[in-house]
């Protein structure tokens, strides 16, 4: 069983790592667009902002287990199958992007408006303000938000086991639940708890370092 546990952990790492990278990119882009298109933003456009906000809100409101089933056709189109670790990455990413987008938006809103105004007064372009002011100043909040998102992805990845997504969730269901192997269930839960603790500690450490710069 130890070999199965190691394999399941590797599958969980793969799911979480790939989906976390895609989520960071997609969610950050969406969060920046929400800030830019808002009233008083660098590129105000209320209709676009409302549409983006609606998309984010709908994405955040869907229970992940329902989302996994709903995007099965898209998953098959992207990776050619609806079962396995690679297939689970699709709903994981789709489910996490709106979640992180709101956290990124919140972190960006906490940037001192005076710093942005000073950059605009010095003739900085929108791209420069976003890259050198907003994203730079919001790094602690963005890292904290990403840490929460990665931990959420770990929980989502466990649920993905319910539809054959692989990983620790799949192992817990196949052996711990269906075969009544309590030891396997406890081992999977323990590994997930340790994994979450490690991610949280690393995230907190990085936030503290960025906050002192």
Automatic annotation (TrEMBL):
It is a multi-pass membrane protein. SUPFAM superfamilies: MetI-like. The keyword Transmembrane helix applies. CDD domains: TM_PBP2. The keyword Transmembrane applies. Its main location: membrane. InterPro entries: AA_ABC_Transporter_Permease, MetI-like, MetI-like_sf. Residues 9-203 form the ABC transmembrane type-1 domain. Keywords: Cell membrane, Membrane, Transmembrane, Transmembrane helix, Transport. One of its GO terms (cellular component) is plasma membrane. GO terms for biological process: D-methionine transmembrane transport. It is found in: Cell membrane. Pfam families: BPD_transp_1. The chain crosses the membrane at residues 15-36, 48-72, 78-101, 142-164, 184-207. Belongs to the binding-protein-dependent transport system permease family. CysTW subfamily. This is D-methionine transport system permease protein. The lineage of its organism: Bacteria, Bacillati, Actinomycetota, Actinomycetes, Streptosporangiales.
């Amino acid at each position: 069983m130890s070999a199965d546990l190691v394999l399941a952990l590797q599958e969980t790492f793969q799911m979480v790592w790939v989906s976390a990278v895609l989520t960071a990119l997609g969610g950050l882009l969406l969060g920046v667009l929400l800030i830019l298109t808002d009233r008083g933003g660098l590129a105000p456009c209320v209709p676009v902002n409302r549409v983006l906000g609606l998309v984010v809100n709908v994405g955040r409101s869907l229970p992940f287990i329902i989302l996994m089933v709903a995007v099965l056709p898209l998953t098959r189109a992207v990776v050619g199958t609806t079962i396995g670790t690679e297939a689970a990455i699709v709903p994981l990413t789709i489910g996490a992007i709106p979640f992180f987008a709101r956290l990124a938006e919140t972190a960006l809103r906490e940037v001192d408006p005076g710093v942005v105004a000073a950059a605009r007064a010095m003739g900085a372009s929108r791209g420069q303000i976003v890259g050198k002011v907003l994203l730079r100043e919001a790094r602690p909040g963005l890292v904290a938000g990403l840490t929460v998102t990665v931990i959420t992805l770990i929980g989502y990845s466990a649920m993905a086991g319910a539809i054959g997504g692989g990983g620790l969730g799949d192992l817990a269901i196949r052996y711990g639940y269906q075969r009544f192997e309590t030891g396997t269930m406890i081992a999977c839960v323990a590994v997930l708890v340790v994994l979450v603790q490690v991610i949280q500690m690393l995230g907190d450490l990085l936030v503290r370092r960025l906050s002192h710069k």
